[in-house]
Amino acid sequence: MKAAQSFGQYLALWVDNEALRQGVPEPLATLNSAGAEALPALIEAYRAPKDVPRACAADELFAPDYGVNLAHHDMHASVAEAFHCGVPNLNSHLVVVANDVVHVSAPLRDEAPAGLKVYSLRSLPSEYVGRAGELLALHSADNVAVAMNSLLLGDGIYIRVEPGVTVERPVQIVNIFHSDMPMLSSRRVVVDAGEGASLRVLLCDHSQGAGVQHLNNQVVQVHAAPHASVDLYDIEESSADTHRLNQLFTHQEHDSRVVVSPTFLHGGVTANHYGLNLTGDHAEAEVTGLAICADKQQVANNVVLRHDCEHSTSRQLFKYALYDEARGSFGGKVVVEHGARFTDASQTNRNILVSEKARMDASPQLEIYCDEVKASHGATTGQLDERALFYMQARGIPADEAERMLTQAFMADVVDNIGYEVLRQRMHVLVEKRLAGASASCETCASADCSKYTRQ
Amino acid sequence: MKDNINTDEPLSNDELLARATGSEYKYGFTSDIDTDIIPAGLSEDVIRLISARKGEPEWLLDFRLAAYRYWLTLEPPTWAHLNIPPIDFQAISYYAAPKSKDAPESLDEVDPQLIDTFNRLGIPLEEQKMLSGMAVDAVMDSVSVHTTHRERLAEMGIIFCSFSEAVREYPDLVRKYLGKVVSYRDNFYAALNSAVFSDGSFVYIPKGVRCPMELSTYFRINASGTGQFERTLIVADDDAYVSYLEGCTAPMRDENQLHAAIVEIIVEDRAEVKYSTVQNWYAGDAEGRGGVYNFVTKRGLCRGDYSKLSWTQVETGSAITWKYPSCILAGRGATGEFYSVAVTNNMQQADTGTKMIHIGSDTHSTIVSKGISAGHSQNSYRGLVKVAPGAEGVRNYTQCDSLLLGSNCGAHTFPVIEVDNRSAVVEHEATTSKISEDQLFYCNQRGIPTEEAIALIVNGYAKEVMNKLPMEFAVEARKLLEITLEGAVG
Mean per-residue pLDDT for B327-333? Predict the structure, then answer.
């Protein structure tokens, strides 16, 4: 019942306002229609997942009556402009998404290095329309939230790296939310890495202003051709009013490598789903995430890692530190298909409950249909080592500082895993700041912190 | 069969695998006993008939009817990683009792064929087995046949009898505890069982009594087209101790038979209950025809402070197993343990595990689960460790390992951990791997044929759990493991 109401309201809005969405270019128009077509059946079949906190379930996230920018008004060009002005010396290829309107920065548009193409889906050169459409169609309706994204997507980002090209500077996508009224924004990123290409993508989520609730329904697709390498860092530092539903899908051909590294520093309700598919022999995937949650924040990370080839390797590492009344949830499933021989899969989830009322649910799962396999998982939930705390206090370190240092050390291996040196150093600082209770001010982070992620 | 192991020509993996499927089910015989079966089908009338046959009091009939009415509102659960063909609940006979004149007074009065059946099963009903000091309650199809050692136990105040007898003789006790741990509203199969259960065992250990012998029940489905719906209720009062063994077999039949049992255990202050199961229901043939559907709800309530409940299970049989022996650790310092070895071969499917619900402070639980899959089977561990907000100082350790023999089987792990108290320390570890080539090679090199080496390695792998079984059972369990896995490796 709830699902019908939650999702149905937006489908009805879309159907009723045909006039508003005139002139939608390809491949978006096809995608919109595919979403509309699939939704009724998906809504019908929707069952709220039992293994994530209720607040992180799609029907709950879509329940409020959000505004939708169907006419694709560019309400926030000013925000993007302000952002450009405020950030000199930016050493990344910058794309700013204001709510759901994509602004590819001028240097990237005009002077992108050879082999790197970054386009808004609305202004895609005709030679890429077919390819982008093909990739989008792969994830037009995987589940109800993806279908909602397909339906309401007004713009998105297509990143193409030509075969053999290594892009040195990362492509940074800054998502900024700014609105005076509750709003639903649909975002999509398609990364298309050609054979032997190499790329790093930074996704930063921010929101400006407080007190206005909004939902960011994002879908990220990563397509890695043979021998391609894609690193995707996803940093969330937004306001407590931010609700985020983020789904990432990867397709990996042989000898490709994909690293996904989500970091939750601040936000409201976040539900991340990672669907990784290793379909080519010798493919490698890594998902390492950390979440520092406080107040009433809720963070659910759900990974489904499917091995369907030989000699593939996957590694998952997720760490949570939960304060106050925060609630964390981790669901990890490794599926080793029949015939996926010589798979090596490991999965680790470690959590610290710092406060009385914090809560953690973990569900590390293995589904294995092949015998030539090495698969392991481990999950622990507990507290900081009391002896270590005592030891540090005995040497004159105040209790809260000792606690902070130990928590930082606990998180260190996740941060160390970040392959991009500049970001790694920046993340160590950010984690330290976050643990020290420095509140993430969204005003400053869009214009200041974010720049530091990439400042050389 | 063992002869050609050492022939010059080494067997291919396929041949070895094929051999496993050829290993015979040792208990696949039916006994030609007069059986009193009521017609297939389920309705309120059938439940009234069962109740009347057993001369039950009004309150129990009401309990059954309430359960039946609730069951009608339910759908069979589908969340397990199992492929369960639709079951026609109207095609099952819900009551099959071996015919006999009156309740037997001594072994002499029991139908000799029945005794023969149990002898073939190796159940210690007979005198020589009595020396082993076990008290046995044998349940065939649905009715409890005989309970040994009654008098000796009675002297100590221990009640160990069939469920029907308990209803007659200790109605207050039964009424007090029945359905208190597993309510008829618990799940589909628990509701079904509560409506139609025909017999089972009842154990009551009074305050401060340490049961001097192991109590044992043997279940056997004999009649065709019947289901077995037994109910076991164990109550250990303050400071009591009991070790309880349960074994199950069924004859070979083409059709699937349903077994939906309930086990309820209540453990009071400082009491300890050890519950061991060796489950060897008929698993169906190599193509997956026939076999028992084993859908069981087992749960213990450690409501006393410092109480302890330990589940040990060796699951080798059944076409489909759906079973999660659980502990509700409500008393302060209560301890729950779960040790399991689940072996699946051919087309068997098993979805088994445990729930440890920590409600009391300083409660501890240990889970050790070893899954072994071979052939085309699917073997899943599913578990829940839950720490309630008020439970301080909880400790859990979970280890679940899977071993894969052959490339067509599946091994899955679905643990869920919910921690709502920061003082808890919960650990989960799991590995899945294939049998070690190095170990096999080492054994082969020392002249141990592959098949024996596998048995050796698997037994070593499962040793941690086997060691928790009482002596008599451990021997049988080890043999079962070997039979089930005979040659099942590549």
Answer: 95
Structure confidence by residue, pLDDT tens digits, B10-23: 445 555 444 444 45
- A388 lies within 8 A of chain B by CB: no
Contact assignment for A351 to B419 by CB distance below 8 Å? yes
DSSP secondary structure letters along A58-107: HHHHT-S--EE-TT---TTHHHHHHHHHH-TT--SEEEEEETTEEEE-HH
Helix (H) or strand (E) holding A151: helix A144-152
The alpha-carbon radius of gyration of chain A (Å, integer) is 21
Q: How many CB atoms lie within 10 A of CB A325?
A: 16
Residue A373 DSSP SS3: strand
Residue B308 counted as domain residue: yes
Task: Give residue B341's Cα distance to chain centre.
Answer: 12
Note down the domain range covering B277: 19-364
Helices A28-45 and A2-16 sit at what angle, rounded to 10 degrees?
A: 150
In 3D space, the residue among B202, B263, B210, B277 whose CA is nearest the CA of residue B240 turns out to be B210
Q: For residue A318, give the nearest of A276, A357, A267, A262 by alpha carbon.
A: A262
| Contact at CB, B434 and A372, closer than 8 angstroms | yes
* Residue B395 Cα, gap to closest chain A Cα (Å): 9
Cβ(B195)–Cβ(B64) below 8 Å: yes
pLDDT in tens, B219-262: 666 555 666 788 899 999 999 999 988 876 655 566 677 888 99
Return d(Cα B129, Cα B212) in angstroms, integer: 16
What total of structural domains would you count in chain B? 1
Peptide bond before residue A27 is cis, with ω within 30 degrees of 0: yes
**Do residue B415 and residue A363 have CB atoms under 8 angstroms apart?**
yes
CB atoms within 10 A of CB A114: 8
